[in-house]
UniProtKB/TrEMBL annotation:
Pfam families assigned: OST48_MD, OST48_N
Chain segments annotated as coiled-coil in the UniProt record: none
Organism: Trifolium subterraneum
Membrane topology annotation: Single-pass type I membrane protein
Keywords on record: Endoplasmic reticulum, Membrane, Signal, Transmembrane, Transmembrane helix
Protein name: Dolichyl-diphosphooligosaccharide--protein glycosyltransferase 48 kDa subunit
Pathway linked to the protein: Protein modification; protein glycosylation
Subunit structure: Component of the oligosaccharyltransferase (OST) complex.
Cellular location(s): Endoplasmic reticulum membrane; Membrane
Signal peptide: 1-18
């Protein structure tokens, strides 16, 4: 019995060091595959995640035992769908469960290809991405294709639009468009102006539905709850073959020994899994000027100071966040005060202002939403009272003329009364 208790106590630290906002890379990731062969053919991508501290759990997408949560608690912090052909997930997972997973603040990576099932397309559509309705269509580019030893149908594309990398990124798969009503979706990698989406094995009888730079090859979404999603129209992009393949874009004399795929997805996965652009705010304080303790109530026209510390996760540690666009509102129904916070480049943001001449229940509010960063929403409620009757000034400087006029009118009457009493 003592041994069991000792074993339990030694396991407590392990259980407690599972995912915590203090270290975003301490996460469990569920990877759903169509075939376990993908685990080997895409091993470089998976090893990149594991080397950065992520715990990967590989399952077949139709495994009847898989589940995202148990007893109301999620078992994983992120989900990778490398199962483009799956028609129905196993266990308790379906499209609704995956969307609930994202709605709960968890991250998602989806890779499709030209055999993408209706289930994968449905998940993408719910995230604001619409794959080409023609299930036989792939992205074709007769100008921006990758030069190979055997000329093919120009479906192997070398794309360098919307990215900064040492070499073009290889893509072979299906394109998608962004839902115009969804402002949260962004293109990360787009096709060139000469690209189009069609079946390369048949003649075009009508204009393609997706043309040129409007075709997105890889897109990302950051939900309002800070969950992040990556959607790619190509599973091959993540493969070892594409990671290690040399690339030369048509029309370019430069031949690269290695494509930009590994660099591209390493950096992109860091953002999706909150290793980049992840902010936290701590030590929110407010107090009167010259004091250090936080009061329970302010008085109108008090001078106060507000401060907060903001840090960004660098992948290994929390570093001071530096920005000049963080603002605080002193809010009651609408902002009475809006101030841009100064910072000392060490993560400390601060400002000072005078409490408005309005009493009621106010809030200090910081609503920070910057592209590429997790949003911050901070609020602290504080009441503001008017002056008490004994706190008003006895003599108002602006009223001195009136005081003088009153005394000047009162003085003659006083002299007359005194003179009459003297005579009597």
């Amino acid at each position: 019995m003592a041994k069991l208790i000792f074993l339990f106590l030694t396991l407590i630290p392990i259980l407690c060091t599972s995912f915590t906002p203090e270290k975003p890379s301490d996460q469990r990731i569920l990877v759903l595959l169509d075939d376990f062969a993908v685990k080997s053919s895409h091993s470089l991508f998976f090893k990149s995640l594991q080397s950065r501290g992520f715990d990967l759990d590989f399952k077949l997408a139709d495994d009847p035992k898989i589940a995202l949560q148990r007893y109301g608690q999620y078992l994983y912090d992120a989900l990778v769908l490398f199962s483009p052909t799956i028609e129905r997930f196993g266990g308790s997972i379906d499209a609704a469960a995956i969307l609930d997973f994202v709605d709960s603040g968890h991250d998602l990576i989806v890779a499709a290809d030209n055999n993408a099932s209706d289930l994968i397309r449905e998940i993408a559509t719910e995230c604001g991405v619409d794959f080409d309705e023609d299930t036989s269509a792939v992205v074709v580019d007769h100008s921006g294709y990758a030069v190979s030893a055997t000329e093919g149908d120009h479906t192997l594309i070398a794309s360098d639009d919307f990215i900064k990398s040492d070499a073009p990124v290889l893509f072979q798969g299906i394109g998608h468009s962004l839902n115009p009503s969804n402002s949260l979706v962004l293109k990360v990698l787009s096709a060139s102006p000469t690209a189009f989406s069609a079946n390369p094995k048949s003649k075009l009888t009508s204009p393609p539905s997706l043309l040129g730079s409007s075709i997105s090859l890889v897109s990302v979404i950051q939900a309002r709850n800070n969950a992040r999603i990556l959607i790619s129209g190509s599973l091959s992009m993540f493969s070892n073959r594409f990671f290690n393949s040399g690339v030369q874009k048509a029309g370019s004399p430069t031949k690269h020994d290695k494509s930009g795929n590994e660099q591209f997805f390493t950096e992109l996965s860091k953002w999706v899994l909150h290793e980049r652009g992840h902010l936290k705010a701590v030590n929110v304080q407010h107090h009167k000027v010259g004091e250090t303790n936080e009061p329970s109530i302010y008085r109108i026209n008090d001078d106060l100071e507000y401060s907060v510390e903001i840090y960004e996760w660098s992948g290994k540690s929390w570093e001071p966040y530096v920005a000049d666009d963080v603002q605080v509102q002193f809010y009651m129904m609408s902002p009475y005060v809006l101030k841009t916070l100064s910072n000392d480049k060490k993560g400390h943001f601060f400002t000072s202002f005078k409490v408005p001449d309005v009493y009621g229940v106010f809030q200090f509010k910081v609503e920070y939403d910057r592209l590429g960063y997790t949003s911050l929403s901070l609020s602290k409620q504080i009441p503001v009272r008017p002056f008490r009757h004994n706190e008003y000034e006895r003599f108002i400087p602006a009223a001195y003329p009136y005081y003088g006029a009153a005394f000047s009118m009162a003085m003659p009457n006083t002299i007359c009364v005194c003179a009459v009493r003297t005579l009597v």
